[in-house]
Amino acid sequence: MSPQVRAHSGAGKIMVVGSDHRQILEKRFKAAGCQVVKASDDKTAIDHARHQTLNTAVLISSGSLINLTETIFNLRDLNRSMEIIVLVDRLGRHPNRFLRQLLEHPIDGTRILTRRQLQKRLQAFLQQSPPGVPTSSG
Questions:
Q1: What does the DSSP 8-state code read for residue 40?
Q2: pLDDT tens-digit series, residues 26-76
Q3: Within 10 Å of residue 80's Cβ, how many Cβ atoms?
Q4: Are 79 and 46 in contact (CB under 8 A)?
Q5: What 8-state DSSP symbol labels residue 107?
Q6: Which residues of 42-58 are buried (b: 16+ CB within 10 A; e: fewer)?
Q7: HSE (CB half, 13 Å, CA atoms) of 13?
Q8: Which domains does the chain have, with CATH numbers?
């Protein structure tokens, strides 16, 4: 987990944007002490970001980079300090030229991670936080 998410996770909010059919991400973030806000699409995500203070947005890539990039820029305009994570199926060779372009020219404050990488960050965060000790710094 990044320092920003780590510092705010106990009282912070993480927005999951897109389809998480089995709600695994929500369960994992809640286990890490985060409040989770769900948004099924980019319009709902922007609306949530306008009305709530969110520490992190996790965008589940659905293959349309044009919508994804627009959502990232809109979220960034609303909250410059929000960490934005784009969750992709896998890194490496990408047949999708738009996703390759995003990897080659990242947007400031945006991380591209696989589910496995995100899971490892959450596990590392949970191992650093003793049980029963608040993880929020204020």
A1: S
A2: 988 988 888 999 999 999 999 999 999 999 999 988 766 667 888 999 999
A3: 9
A4: no
A5: P
A6: beebbebbeeeebbbbb
A7: 12
A8: 3-122 (3.40.50.2300)
Q: Quick: pLDDT tens for 66-106.
A: 678 889 999 999 999 999 998 887 665 555 666 677 777 77
Q: Tokens in use for 78?
A: 């609303």
* pTM > 0.70: yes or no: yes
Q: What are phi and psi of 17, to 5 degrees?
A: -110, 120
131, exposed or middle or buried, with CB in 10 Å at 0-12, 13-18, 19+?
Answer: exposed
CA angle, 108 as apex, 23 and 87 as ends, to 5°?
Answer: 20
Of 73, 92, 94, nearest to 84 (Cα)? 73
Residue pLDDT, tens place only, 112-126: 888 888 888 888 777
Candidates 100, 83, 80; CA nearest to 92 is 100
Q: Token pair for residue 35?
A: 């409040």
pLDDT of residue 128: 72
> Would you tell me the crossing angle of helices 24-31 and 115-128 to the nearest 10 degrees?
20
